[in-house]
Prior knowledge:
By secondary structure, the chain is mostly helical. The protein has a single domain (2-139), classed as Jann2411-like domain (Jann2411-like fold). The protein has six helices and six strands. The chain has helices spanning 14-19, 36-45, 55-76, 83-95, 118-134, 170-185, and strands at residues 22-23, 30-31, 99-102, 108-111, 140-143, 152-155. A two-stranded antiparallel sheet has the order 1-2. A two-stranded antiparallel ribbon has the order 3-4. The chain is globular and about 65 Å long. The protein binds zinc ion. Zinc ion binds next to loops.
Amino acid sequence: MKDRFPDFRLGSVLATSFTATLTERRGNAVERIPTPDRLIDWLAVNGLAVESCTAAQLERARELREAIHAAATAAAMREALPASAIRIINDCSIQGRAAAILTPEGKRQWRLGSASRVEDALGVIAADAIDIVSGERDGRLALCASPTCRAAFFDTSQSRTRKWCDMNTCGNRQKKARFMANKRRQPGPAA
Ligand SMILES: [Zn+2]
């Protein structure tokens, strides 16, 4: 059944992985959490397992997602952050009641509230977004060079010169397009 839904594009940063549940925003957008069950799946993959999710909670999650996208885009462009995006991110952060847990192996885990609420998971994602937008974490927000993507991503490379989001498709697609264009321009010897 799950095969009917688009797969997840997971990056290394929680908040921007979350915004990547909607890809190709400037092209043929692909919604990767089309149902509450898919949000449950996405959260589980990202260490934020919840027991249930209502349609309203999915709506709220998408609202947070677009708020993070708007705030991260503005930050990447050195523009003022949209007030509505700030409000939604802050509301989600305040409403979440997750605790960071240190495992015996020295790893961080998130423990959500007793009912494993979606709101707690969104709170963790909102706090992660605050970290990267505020500059609290080492890295640089930038926009993907792909004109159909333009996703905000968090560049932690040494040189801070990454051009494409870390969804592993934009850069590859660009290279392929350039390769095909070159081939058309200079038809080589027949293979
Ligand atoms: Zn991209």
